[in-house]
Amino acid sequence: xxxxxxxxxxxxxxxxxxxxxxxxxxxxxxxxxxxxxxxxxxxxxxxxxxxxxxxxxxxxxxxxxxxxxxxxxxxxxxxxxxxxxxxxxxxxxxxxxxxxxxxxxxxxxxxxxxxxxxxxxxxxxxxxxxxxxxxxxxxxxxxxxxxxxxxxxxxxxxxxxxxxxxxxxxxxxxxxxxxxxxxxxxxxxxxxxxxxxxxxxxxxxxxxxxxxxxxxxxxxxxxxxxxxxxxxxxxxxxxxxxxxxxxxxxxxxxxxxxxxxxxxxxxxxxxxxxxxxxxxxxxxxxxxxxxxxxxxxxxxxxxxxxxxxxxxxxxxxxxxxxxxxxxxxxxxxxxxxxxxxxxxxxxxxxxxxxxxxxxxxxxxxxxxxxxxxxxxxxxxxxxxxxxxxxxxxxxxxxxxxxxxxxxxxxxxxxxxxxxxxxxxxxxxxxxxxxxxxxxxxxxxxxxxxxxxxxxxxxxxxxxxxxxxxxxxxxxxxxxxxxxxxxxxxxxxxxxxxxxxxxxxxxxxxxxxxxxxxxxxxxxxxxxxxxxxxxxxxxxxxxxxxxxxxxxxxxxxxxxxxxxxxxxxxxxxxxxxxxxxxxxxxxxxxxxxxxxxxxxxxxxxxxxxxxxxxxxxxxxxxxxxxxxxxx
Length: 630
Prior knowledge:
The protein is α/β, with parallel strands linked by helices.
C-alpha cells in the first residue's frame, strides 16, 4: 500500500527552486533514508510531508487517515512539566479512559444498585476495559520507562523541562514522538544529541518499527542499520537507491561510472557525425549537387533526435580541509596526572590520568554529561608544559574545535573572524574560506546569523589557518553532511600531528582513532585498539554471564600504589601500548601481503596506510619510553 506519493513536486522560497521535479512513492512499512549535502532540501521535504509547508508546484498525497509525526532539528519548550509528566501527556486520552474505568468501579461498588443499573454499568465497564487494553492501557507506563532508559533520560525523569539543555529537549521531543508511534514517522537528525548507548537503542527501536519511516541523518552507521531504501537529493532533484547507506554508495558509484561511459560513447558518436556533416558541407560547397547538403541535414537531425546523456558530475564541489602540522611536536603531546573536577557540586573526575604521545589518535569516549567537554575546555584554558595536572608538550600548538561553537565571536563577520588569526592576510583568508564553500557574499555576514553547518565549516577553516600540531575536536561532524564528514576524515588521516577527539559517529571513530580513553568511574580508562574493537570488548564485558562472574581481564596493567613513583605508571602504560601496537602491526602486515597476493590493490593500499600509522605510533611510544627513563 502506498502511504506517500509525490509527482513533480516543487518548492521555491525565492525565484530559485529548492526542490524541483521530485517524483517518488513510499510504501507502507518502508524505512527510507534522505541524504544529500547541507542545504539541498532534505528538511524542506520533511516539512512538506508533515504539512508544515505547502509545495509551490506538483502534487504530494498521502491517505487522509494516516497520522504523521515530525521531529525537527531545533525545538523550543515553554512547559513547566517534568520530563516524566511531558511523556505522560502522550497518553492523556488513555489516562482519561483509565479514570473513567476507576469511576465505574466506584459506582459498581456503591450500595443500592438494582440489577438493571448494575448490568448497564457492567456493560459500560466491559466495553471501556476492552478499549483500554487494546490501546495499551496496561503497558504505557512500561513503554515510557523503556524509552526513558533507552534514550538516557532516566537521570532527568523528575526535572522540569524548562531546566533542560537544548540537546536534552531534543532528546525529549524524540522520546515523545517514538511513544506516539505515528503511521509516518519523520526524523530530522535524531542522533545529534544521543550518546552511543542511546544511538544503539534507537537503531534497534527504528529497525523494529512496524510503520513507515523517513530519516534524515548524517550518521552513516544509523542509516546502515535502519534504512532499506535511500533517496538522494541533489541539484533540486531526486535519485532512488535500494538498500542501506553502504549499498547506496556502491550503487551510486556504479551508476556514475556507467553514465560516464555512456556519455563518452555518445560524445564520440556525436563527434563522428559532426565530422561527417562538415565533410558533406565542404563537398556541397564545391558542387551544385544537392545530395551532400541533404546528407548533412540528415546527420544533423540524427544528432538532434538523440536522447542526450547528461555528463555526470563525478566530483561535486565540497569542502577541502587540509590540516598541516606547523612542526613536529615533542615526544609527549599531553600528560594528565591526578586530574579532579567537579561541576555544580557533582564530581566528574577524581585523580584521572592519561598519557598521549605525539602523533597518536585518541578517542575520548563516555556517556553524555560525564565531563568530556569540561576536560577539553580545561586543557585549552589551563594546559601548559609547567602545569602540574594538565601538561602539554613544550612544542605543542593546540587547536580546538568546540561543539557549541564558543570559539567563534557572534558579533564578528566571517572575514573578521578569520583575520583574528595572527599573520593571516585578507587574500589568504579568502582562499581558505573558498575551500570551505564560503563566497564573496558571505564575507560580511555576521557569525551569529550562520547556520550550524556554516559555523562548523568556519571553525575548520580557522583550524586550517592556525597550522596546529595537536587537534582537540569536540563533535566535529555534528552539523556536517555525510560528504563533508568524509572529507574531514580524509584530512585527519593525512594529518601528521596528534588528535584527541570526542565523537559519537562510529564511522568517524573507526576510521580515525587507534586508541580509546573512556571516562568511567571518575577515571580515564585506557583501551588500545580501534573503536570497533573497544565496543565489542565492552559489550562482551557488559553482557550478563552465569554467576559467579569471572573477573574481567584488565586492558592495561594494574595501576601501581600511590606511593610508587609516577615513572612506574608511565612505563607500564607505554609497555602495554607497545605490546598492542606491535601485535596489530604483525596482523596488518599479514593482511597487506594477502591482499596484494590476491590482487586486491585497494585493500593492500589501505592496509599499507594503516601500517604507516602504526609504525609512527610505535616510534612515538619508544621515544616516550626514552624520555621517561631519562
